[in-house]
Amino acid sequence: MPPRWPRKPDRTDPAFRRLDDRMNFATHVAVFAAVNSGLWFTRLLQSYDWGWTTWFTGLWFAGLVIHGIYIFAIANYPVPTDSANKISSHSP
Predict the structure, then answer these.
(1) How many CB atoms lie within 10 A of CB 21?
(2) Has this prediction a pTM greater than 0.90?
(3) What does the domain layout of the chain look like in residue ranges?
């Protein structure tokens, strides 16, 4: 069952952005696992000498680690300032 959001989804909402970024990261991990398991299964089953699979998996994994560090440790989700609230209600 997909997560339910209690209000209208808006990319400027910091809580929604955090959830969206984490779900995006989870999708990337799932695609990484599916593609690489298929490559390594084929390589081992067919006894192919694919030396590039090590580099491919390693570089992709490094990218996932960098993505994960950004999402879970570095990303900042500030509350947007509403310029309409700054306008004075007093008219000249």
Answers:
(1) 16
(2) no
(3) 14-77
